Each structure stands twice: as structure tokens, then as C-alpha cells.
Amino acid sequence: MTNSKSKVVLITGASSGIGEALALALAKRGDHVVLVARSLGRLEVIAERVREARGIATVLPADLSKPGAAQAVFDEVMRRGLSLDVLVNNAGLGHFGAFHEEPAAHLSEQLFVNVVALTQLSHLFVPHLLTRRGIVLNIASTIAFQPAPYMSVYGATKAFVLSLSEALWAEYRGSGLRVVALCPGPVETPFIDAAGADLRSSRIFKRPSTVSQVVSAAVAALDGYGPTRIVGTMNWIMAQGARFAPRAFTARLSGWLLGGSRARRTSSTGSKA
Ligand SMILES: NC(=O)c1ccc[n+]([C@@H]2O[C@H](COP(=O)([O-])OP(=O)(O)OC[C@H]3O[C@@H](n4cnc5c(N)ncnc54)[C@H](OP(=O)(O)O)[C@@H]3O)[C@@H](O)[C@H]2O)c1
């Protein structure tokens, strides 16, 4: 992406955290951002800030945990005649806790938003993006590189996002369309508290990245090459380490890093983290 021509960029999960900050950063480049999330009031406030920053904003409220939501977003984009250059699949949520204690609704919400909606939106928009030499930017996570005890379903959804993105990057290489996965480590956003109080006390969350570090990496990913961009040098080293260590070791280390107070509680009652 260059500054010479403004782009039309659809961002899911644009009502807070990384999505909000990325929308404002792209607005400063003069881009037209299409803001998607459930919270209409928040989206309208952010749209106003985008316009103040010289960008153009369109608000499209949608609940991506509902079947048919991706199709409805696509239909609305087409109805408004918006010619998308970039799709940013950023909306996502995670829950922290023992797998068997998770309410079933939490599991399906993570699967729908993080996996199903992301896949459906990509599938719907790729034919159009191919004609625009466009980009799909999927927000994965460094959790994608290893299993994630206590965030097992969330980790599995992000492993899916990473695998899908890298496969599509290779599939469309040379076509003009680029698919890229951005992998932040822990980031200080509302995501952390929404995931559950224990996550903040886990060892992995001692030094979270700032949102602006993630946005800089996202902009670099849009302007760059390659299928994957990991945010931060330490996160990059840990992701490489996970590739070479034995799977059992990696799973147990990941459980120790994520476990926090929950792991300490379970180990004090005799079970292993
Ligand atoms: N924070 C971290 O530590 C971290 C680390 C690595 C990767 N990530 C990933 O980064 C992405 C952005 O997360 P964030 O940290 O910026 O968290 P956040 O501030 O909680 O933002 C999540 C966004 O997703 C939207 N969303 C959630 N459920 C939705 C639904 N059913 N339908 C439509 N939109 C929905 C939220 O909007 P509404 O509530 O208004 O719908 C919000 O805009 C996620 O994919 C997350 O997995 C985060």
C-alpha cells in the first residue's frame, strides 16, 4: 500500500483496541475505512475521529457471531458500491479458563467470530480483491505457534487463522492479491480483561506490547511482503523456538506461561498445570 492513492479498507472489530487504532492510523493516510463491530455508538464516535483525521468513514454494525453476518456485511458493502482494497479480519475474542469449565456459548462464540466469520469474509471478498491487487490482513496471534493450555480454544482458532493465511498467501502468490497474518503477542487492550481476570496474572502478560506497536507492525505488514509478521523481537524468538522444541515440552511450557494464578492453584491441589 502506498500514500499515492487512498484505499478502501474494511476493518472488523473496529470499535476498540487494535482495530480502532488501526482505523485512526489509516485515516491519517487519507484512507476510507469501513468500520465493522457490534457497538454502533462506539463506531460512530470512531468514525467522527476518522473524519477529523482527514479520512473517510463508513459504519457497518454487525454481530459476527451470528450465522449470515459475513454475507450481510458483504452485501451491504456491494450495495453501497464500495470497492474494497483491503480486508482486515481483526474482530476476535478469547476466554481464559479450564476447557471443561467454559460455557458452551463461549466456545461457539470464539469459533464463529475468530474462524467462521473470518473465513467467510475472506471467501466473499477475495474474488473482488483479486481484481484490485488487494490485501487480506488477518490478525492472528503468537499463541498460534504452540498449543495454549487455559486458552485452548482461542489458541486453536488462531492456529487456524495462521495456517489459513499462510496457505492463501502461497495460493495467490503472483496473482497480485496478498494474504498476510499479523501475530501480536500480549497487547494491552480491553481483550485482556474480557478474556477473564486470571489472564492478567499469567506469566505471559508481564510485558504486553502497546497498541501503537501493533499498529506500526500492521501498517508495515500492509506495505511489506511475506505471509507472516510477528510483533516484537522476543515474540519472534519464542515463535521460532516453538518450532524446534518437542511438542510435549512446548505444550507444558505454554501452560506454565499462561497458567498464572490458576496453574498455581491447581498445582497446590495436586494436579499438574
Ligand atoms: N490483546 C491481545 O493481547 C491480543 C494478542 C494477540 C492477538 N489479538 C487479536 O487482536 C484482535 C483485536 O483484539 P483487541 O486486542 O484489539 O481486543 P478488543 O479491544 O477487545 O477488540 C475486539 C474487537 O472485536 C469486536 N468483536 C468481538 N465480538 C464481536 C462480534 N460478535 N461481532 C463483531 N465484532 C466483534 C469488538 O467489537 P464489539 O464488542 O463492539 O462487537 C472489538 O471491536 C483479536 O482478533 C485478538 O484475538 C489480541
Protein architecture, described:
- The protein has one domain (about 10-270): NAD(P)-binding Rossmann-like Domain (Rossmann fold).
- It is about 50% helix and about 15% strand.
- The protein has ten helices and seven strands.
- It has a seven-stranded parallel β-sheet with strand order 3-2-1-4-5-6-7, with helices on both faces.
- The longest helix has 28 residues, at about 105-130.
- The model is unreliable at about 265-273 (pLDDT under 50).
- Bound molecules: NADP nicotinamide-adenine-dinucleotide phosphate.
- NADP nicotinamide-adenine-dinucleotide phosphate binds near residues 13, 16, 17, 42 and 189.
Radius of gyration: 18 Å
Regions with pLDDT < 50 over 5+ consecutive residues? 266-273
Name the beta content range: 5-15%
Q: Helical content, roughly? A: 40-55%
Overall geometry comes to globular
Query: Which molecules other than protein and nucleic acid are bound?
Result: NADP nicotinamide-adenine-dinucleotide phosphate
Tell me the total number of β-strands. Answer: 7
Strand arrangement in the largest pleated sheet: 3-2-1-4-5-6-7
Helical segment tally? 10
- What's the order of the H and E elements? EHEHEHEHEHEHHHEHH
